[in-house]
Write a structure and sequence with these properties.
34% helix, binds 3,4-dihydroxybenzoic acid, eight-stranded parallel beta sheet, alpha/beta, 308 residues, 9 helices
Length: 308
């Protein structure tokens, strides 16, 4: 069974890869990803300066999902630029995730990272965890200004990682922005920002930063992720490839993302909880699901969700 896919002219040997943030901060973690059964290596979202991130505890997994407020711990863009050739030499595509604490940071990082020639660049408009910094993806004008500027310095395929939207009006507005900015692929969705998980016994929040507020991931966000994949698939009528991220913990979850229009899927919470062996499990489960349905490839059902 062939689970390979192509996004913006780049071939991925498998449609399953890590989500940015999960086991992809250090060189050791990235090399371990590269040795696993993955479709691509995705880096942690990088900033100009190296960062330790927010105080711990800053990630908490629970039945059904996770909450995190990592605060962009990363090695700084220069370290990732230096690592990209080594990661590429491992044989799978490399997606560099670019963030920043202000608009100009994105430009600085994008220029140097682009010169290091990752296979694709993902521009992260949706970090929810920096105290005092709203998610750019919730400001359509700021998103458009930023994307038009970074597009000028990025020559490899450029994607955008968006936060979840909860109203069709917002899908329409952001769809219009994306359509004007030369975006080659979308990654939907980032964590559902600023949830709060409570430990009732201890009468405490479960993570320390921001009074316990953090981004939600895992099974609990799957319907939100599927809705965003579906909404943008329909807006672009399948012309902009979509990486579906959110709530994939088994092969059927991946199948559902593809049915809604995803070309590939990324995993965060389940990768952190289960470790690198999860890639082979998910691939086996997705293959089993295709067999059960009589499909031989992802194109047989991509985007073909039936509406009642
Ligand atoms: C972090 C979390 C995110 O969801 C994101 O997009 C970027 C960074 C973080 O807290 O490190």
């Amino acid at each position: 069974m062939d689970l390979s896919i192509t996004i913006a002219g780049v071939r991925f040997p498998s449609c399953i890869m890590n989500a940015s943030g999960a086991l992809c901060v250090t060189r050791e973690e990235l090399l371990a990803l590269g040795r696993s059964h993955i479709g691509a290596i995705v880096t942690k979202s990088m900033t100009v300066e190296p960062r330790d991130g927010n105080p711990e505890p800053r990630y908490y997994g629970f039945p059904g999902g996770s909450i995190n407020s990592m605060g962009l711990p990363n090695l700084g863009y220069k370290a990732y630029a230096a690592l990209i050739p080594e990661l590429k030499a491992m044989g799978n595509p490399v997606i560099a995730s670019v963030a920043g604490l202000c608009e100009d940071d994105f430009l600085t990082i994008a220029a140097t990272i682009n010169a290091a020639k990752p296979d694709l660049i993902e521009v992260n408009l949706s970090c929810p965890n920096i105290p005092g910094k709203p998610q750019i993806g919730y400001d359509a004008e700021a998103s458009e200004r930023l994307l038009k500027r970074v597009r000028k310095v990025i020559t490899v395929p450029m994607g955008v990682k968006l936060p979840p939207y909860f109203d069709p009006a917002h899908h329409t507005i952001m769809g219009d922005v994306i359509g004007r900015c030369g975006v080659d692929f979308l990654n939907l969705i980032n964590s559902v920002g600023n949830g709060l998980v409570v430990d009732p016994d201890r009468e405490e929040a479960v993570i320390k930063p921001k009074g316990g507020f953090g981004g939600l991931g895992g099974t609990i966000i799957k319907p939100v992720a599927l809705a965003n994949v579906r909404a943008f698939w329909k807006i672009f009528e399948g012309r902009i490839p979509i990486i579906g991220t959110g709530g994939v913990v088994n092969g059927v979850d991946a199948f559902e993302h593809v049915l809604c229009g995803a070309s590939a899927v990324q995993i965060g919470t389940v990768l952190v909880e289960e470790g690198l062996g999860v890639f082979a499990r998910l691939e086996g489960e997705l293959v089993a699901q295709l067999r059960k349905k009589g499909y031989t490839k992802l194109e047989d059902f991509r985007g073909k969700l039936k509406e009642l």
